Amino acid sequence: MPSAILTPILGTVIIWAASAIAGLTLAALLATGSLSQSPLVRHPADLVILLTRGVPTSLLVVVAGLAAMPQVPPAWMPNPFPGTSDGMVLVAWAIVVALALGSTGHLAVIFRSGYRSLGTARLEQARVLGLSRWRRYRLLVRESATASLPPTGARMVHHLHNTAFAALFPVADLFGWVQGRSHETFEVTRYATIGAGVYVVLSFLIWTATRILEHRLGTRRRTPVVRTGSAPRVPIGGRA
């Protein structure tokens, strides 16, 4: 049995990773757009955030899966999902997109709130430092991570649990394995316990990775400031 469960675990991890990366990327773009001074950019971004927050992830997955089921996957489409047949690869990718959208709006609000938590004075200080746009963006992301990382980590754990919706379709995942083995053997308690244990372990790994990142960013912020000349240069979020 240990070898039999590796495929659905790996399938779940890949579905989670692919959809999480897509969701984080889209959320960052939407958060940036919702902070734009241009109404032509801000209003569409706000609308997408509102829609992706308001529509249940389960509904997104069901609609995406049903829409992809009758379609024939193109020959060029990769199949990185262990245990999922090539005929179902389009459905698997549709589920990945649906899961990503299910978390996008929530993550965008987290990122936007983290940015706004810096305060007007600190944001203005970043503007007058004379940094390039990319360096200023990296600086603000690092500074706002203190406020945005904890809820982001929590959302990533919830995102892992949402991957169970993949079991609604012929896509190999951990929850689908639990269901299948329970129906075949009628040992529901046994396989439910195994599945729950694996989800707990994966959730703990996500939480640990987030905590490590929080610690590293916190350590960087506490790095002693190098003074040049008579006037000290204090980084954003640092102490004089």
Automatic annotation (TrEMBL):
Location of this chain's protein in the cell: Membrane
Domain ABC transmembrane type-1, residue spans: 23-217
Cleavable signal peptide: none
Keywords recorded for this protein, A-Z: Membrane, Transmembrane, Transmembrane helix
GO cellular component: plasma membrane
Keyword set includes Iron: no
Domain of life, per lineage: Bacteria
Topology of this chain in the membrane: Multi-pass membrane protein
Matching Gene3D superfamilies: MetI-like
Any single Pfam family the record assigns to this protein: BPD_transp_1
Presence of the UniProt keyword Membrane in the record: yes
InterPro entries, A to Z: ArtM/GltK/GlnP/TcyL/YhdX-like (IPR043429), MetI-like (IPR000515), MetI-like_sf (IPR035906)
Coiled-coil positions: none
Gene Ontology BP term (one): amino acid transport
Transmembrane segments: 13-35, 47-69, 89-111, 160-179, 191-213
Name the record gives this protein: Arginine ABC transporter permease
Native source organism of the sequence: Virgisporangium ochraceum
Gene: artM
